[in-house]
Design a protein that fits this description.
Layout: H1 4-10, E1 15-20, H2 29-36, E2 46-49, E3 55-60, E4 66-71, H3 77-88, E5 91-97, H4 103-116, E6 120-124, H5 145-156, E7 174-179, H6 190-202, E8 207-212, H7 216-228, E9 235-239, H8 247-255, H9 261-268, H10 273-293, E10 298-302, H11 308-315
Parallel strand pairs: 1-2, 1-10, 2-5, 5-6, 6-7, 7-8, 8-9, 9-10
Antiparallel strand pairs: 3-4
Helix pairs in contact: 5-6, 10-11
Length: about 325
């Protein structure tokens, strides 16, 4: 097994990778295997597995009062990574988030990953809990992703939270972080966003994977701006094929991105779901070919647990 940064350095052409969601509670992992299996033909070098933090729900008690309960709808990130590695002999990248973890719990999670031979992580702040107006760190946890990167990098140098350890063994994590070509929605502008991104790199991150975008000009401009700020690590473009007409409204609202007019016009003319999927496939193929021609390190596809469209796209590229 290898690190993401090693795959990139050793590659002779643009790589293929994907991101998946853990199954919902109660679902079989077989459905996930069935979606990943057709994509293995195209030799993805790594598969990201997202992490979903807790949510709070209120359950009515027999006395009429409401009890607040914490639930996780998509558990299993670490075990899914291990299962994918075992079944498909592919490197996996679990997402590690700030929200919901103390620093000690983060260290324990990283130790588990290290024991499992998982050497890649994507360090993220994570979303706020539903109902919170803004992100609130767990008491004793990290507020920002750059702090999380620092903790992981410290462990790579043999520095654990306890100062009483004798000759602790360093970990060897390759650390990825997120980048936002259209800026993170909480940043006042892209310049400020790049400042925080650079801090994550300075704290030990090895590569960047971007938020989805549908206009390649935004990615190319972002890479130039990163380089102007002294950010020289690989920047992997994140892509998502459109599969439903509602996504031209939902994706901009949920991910704070712009959709090109040509793409919107083409989708609005579609009469069936299959028509929409075909437009999404063709748009992603066009994006991908231009990105490959510009020698991007890797194409990273957000599958959301569905492989059909990505299978069609990959068949034209890899």
């Amino acid at each position: 097994m290898a690190k993401v940064i090693e795959h990139i350095k050793n590659a002779k052409s643009t790589l293929f990778s994907l991101e998946i969601l853990p199954p919902s509670t109660g679902e079989s992992i077989q459905k996930l295997f069935d979606n990943v299996a057709p994509l293995m033909e195209f030799k993805p070098k790594f598969i990201d597995v997202t992490y979903h933090r807790e949510e709070y729900v209120f359950k009515k008690m027999p006395n009429g009062l409401l009890e607040q309960k914490s639930i996780r709808k998509r558990p299993g990130t670490v075990s899914i990574c291990a299962a994918l590695m075992h079944k498909f002999n592919v490197d996996t990248v679990p997402h590690i988030i700030c929200g919901g973890f103390t620093k000690e719990e983060t260290e324990y999670a990283l130790i588990d990953l290290n024991f499992l031979g998982i050497d890649n992580v994507l360090a993220l702040r994570g979303d706020s809990i539903k109902g919170q107006k803004s992100f609130e760190p767990t008491p004793g946890g990290h507020r920002f992703a750059d702090e999380l990167v620092s903790q992981i990098h410290d462990m790579n140098r043999g520095h654990y939270l306890s100062d009483e350890l004798q000759n602790p063994t360093p970990t060897k994590f390759c650390i990825g972080v997120a980048g936002y070509p259209e800026k993170h929605f909480e940043s006042p502008n892209l310049k400020t966003d790049l400042k925080y991104l650079k801090k994550k790199i300075e704290n030990g991150a090895d590569y960047i994977v971007t938020q989805m975008f549908f206009d390649n000009a935004k990615y190319f401009d972002y890479v130039e701006k990163c380089q102007a700020e002294g950010i020289t690590v690989p920047i992997i473009p994140g892509l998502k094929p459109i599969t439903t007409k509602s996504q031209i409204f939902n994706l901009p609202r949920n991910f704070f991105i712009d959709m090109p007019e040509d793409l919107i016009d083409a989708i609005e003319k579609c009469r069936t779901d299959d028509d929409v999927k075909n437009v999404g496939i063709e748009w992603a193929i066009h994006q991908s070919k231009e990105l490959i021609a510009n020698k991007v390190p890797c194409l990273h596809f957000y599958s959301m647990g569905k492989s059909t469209s990505i299978q069609h796209i990959a068949s034209k590229l890899f």
